[in-house]
Please model this.
Amino acid sequence: QKEVEQDPGPLSVPEGAIVSLNCTYSNSAFQYFMWYRQYSRKGPELLMYTYSSGNKEDGRFTAQVDKSSKYISLFIRDSQPSDSATYLCAIPSGSARQLTFGSGTQLTVLP
Amino acid sequence: EADIYQTPRYLVIGTGKKITLECSQTMGHDKMYWYQQDPGMELHLIHYSYGVNSTEKGDLSSESTVSRIRTEHFPLTLESARPSHTSQYLCASSESGHSVPFFGSGTQLSVL
Model:
């Protein structure tokens, strides 16, 4: 079983829609969680960083962590065509606390 | 401006050539990383460094080697490139401790 599993997509939504992106993880010891956004042929850029269970909001983006279910989500409100990208969840794991990434969900927001 | 730079952005090279992918950061970070990413696939850590003269292999086995002689510089070398090395290589850096890596724009390598 992979340490981090992510809904593969691809996902296509109309402009203005609410988008939900999800990951599950296997190790209950994981304590903090990240979401990266990656545009085509670019490096990932950090979008959200959460440490505890519950919600964290930043503009149109909300990161949600449910440690009891080992489930993390990223919600995008009022989605825009510029949000079209691949979204990666990432969790520090292993003895060296290096990031383990999900496989990414490709999102397309149609104008 | 503090940033992380990778060169070249694109490289097409023949089998058997030696190549070095450059990565430099001006953020003063101690930790640096190399990830490999195939299209539509997850990132895999291939090398990391905690600081000068420190290098470790990552989760994914790689025929590449790295060096860390200066804090800001973390080059990756392939002694003899093969078509199986075709991939995107992403360099990242972070502060020590539980810190978030920042990524460069990547080098897209194609070996013919």
